[in-house]
Design brief:
431 residues; five-stranded parallel beta sheet; Helicase, Ruva Protein, domain 3; 21 helices; elongated
């Protein structure tokens, strides 16, 4: 009787459940988005369509089709579908699924697909509990996670699964989903309303459908045609997905740094805003700007470091929200400054030589000569200060075995370009 009631509940939900559930695709042909990974011409898409899908980890943000793909795989393979949430499931729950899978396979040859939502929340012991069943082919595992599986899923399980990265839906794809939802509701969906919902949904089909359903219900209750105003009322402020210790943090930080290096102030201020809105530590952002000021600008514009350090100090003294102004000013300054990594290359090359060859002793004339007996050892003897004789003082100061090596090679940009031209006028040769 339990199965009878379950079937009846599922049938009822298909008519009265949330809109996202009612219009969920049943086949890959109905799936919107993810064409690059499960499209009809891809190896994985063909494997799913032919009922031979491998165990896999689906990685991507909410609302991009992870659960939907799992159900499509089960449908295509005629497998029995078992679903667990890693938030609440225990090892005993996993063992019970494996026991049922064993009975099915031995009794009538039916395979089992085990879908574990938020698999990153399973600890190592819980992940190990399903490992042998996957390895033996007793179950086909599909794990879904919003976190980077290479950080969160243990290597033994990961090596037995295909990792599939799913992308947020595009605006055009979201509008296709919304058109399907509108047909289900029997609603007239104006183009500007569809565009506004898609724009506010951030690539999340579930959010788009929830917004459409609530906006339509609001409009219907008021006896009004669906309009952008109903969307604004229904959508409110979209929750931001940002994990200061996870994949999103590293991706946005990388984009922020590379945008400063690439000289794109608009991208820089956008990624800065995204991380601040997501709750990023402003001191982390200040440190990245200070590093970029030396690594990517250097002596092409020495003032970049002054501005960056001042912003870092302002973060400590002022704090958010006002310090966002200091961070934005410094980040934009670094982005717009002429670029050179000559100073960075210089220290990296010099440290490589020290690691490879050890620390060489300075020439005797450069050694410490302030103590009694130093002159008898030859320390400081023959040293010429540039204040006394600039011409004689301009020689090679490197240790004996390193004479002639060049670490710092000024670029042709900004103040370094002028420095390089000045050196050329005075006869210095770069390597």
């Amino acid at each position: 009787m339990g199965d009878l009631f379950s079937d009846a509940a599922a049938e009822q939900a298909s008519h009265t459940g949330p809109l996202a559930h009612r219009v969920r695709p049943r086949t890959l042909d109905e799936l919107v988005g993810q064409r690059d990974v499960v499209g009809p011409e891809t190896a994985l898409g063909r494997a799913i369509a032919e009922g031979r899908a491998p165990s896999m980890i689906l990685h991507g943000p909410p609302g991009v089709g992870k659960t939907t793909i799992a159900r499509i795989v089960a449908e295509a393979s005629s497998a029995s579908f078992e679903e667990l949430s890693a938030v609440s499931a225990r090892i005993d729950d996993v063992r019970a699924v494996i026991a049922r899978a064993t009975d099915r396979l031995g009794g009538n040859g039916t395979r089992t697909l085990l879908f574990i939502d938020e698999i990153h929340r399973f600890d190592k012991r819980q992940q190990d509990s399903v490992l042998h069943a996957v390895e033996d082919g007793l179950v086909t595992l599909i794990g879904a996670t919003t976190e980077n599986p290479y950080f969160e899923v243990n290597q033994a399980l990961l090596s037995r699964c295909t990792v599939v990265e799913l992308e947020p839906l595009t605006l055009e794809e979201l509008e296709l989903v919304l058109a399907r939802g509108a047909r289900e509701l029997g609603a007239e969906l104006p183009v500007d309303v569809s565009t506004e919902i898609a724009r506010r949904s951030g690539g999340d089909a579930r959010t788009a459908l929830q917004t459409l359903e609530l906006a339509w219900e609001t409009a219907s209750a008021a006896g009004e045609p669906l309009a952008v105003g109903h969307v604004e009322d229904a959508a409110r402020k979209r929750p931001l997905r940002y994990d200061r210790a996870g994949d999103r943090h590293y991706d946005l930080a990388s984009a922020f740094i590379k945008s400063m290096r690439g000289g794109d102030p608009d991208a820089v201020v956008y990624y800065l805003a995204a991380m601040l809105e997501g709750g990023e530590d402003p001191r982390f952002l200040a440190r990245r700007i200070v590093i970029a000021a030396s690594e990517d600008v250097g002596d092409a514009d020495p003032n970049a470091l002054v501005v960056a350090v001042a912003a870092a100090q302002a973060v400590e003294h002022v704090g958010l929200p006002e310090a966002q102004l200091n961070l934005a000013q410094a980040a934009i300054y670094v982005a717009c400054a002429p670029k050179s990594n000559a100073t960075a290359q210089a220290i990296w090359r010099a440290r490589d030589d020290v690691r490879r060859e050890g620390i060489a002793a300075p020439p005797a004339e450069l050694r410490d000569a302030h103590y009694r007996g130093a002159e008898a050892r030859g320390h400081g003897v023959g040293y010429v200060s540039p204040h006394v004789d600039p011409a004689r003082a301009a020689g090679d100061h490197l240790p004996e075995g390193l004479r002639g090596r060049t670490y710092y090679v000024p670029s042709s940009t900004g103040e370094e370009g002028e420095e390089a031209r000045r050196d050329d006028r005075h006869g210095r040769q770069g390597a």
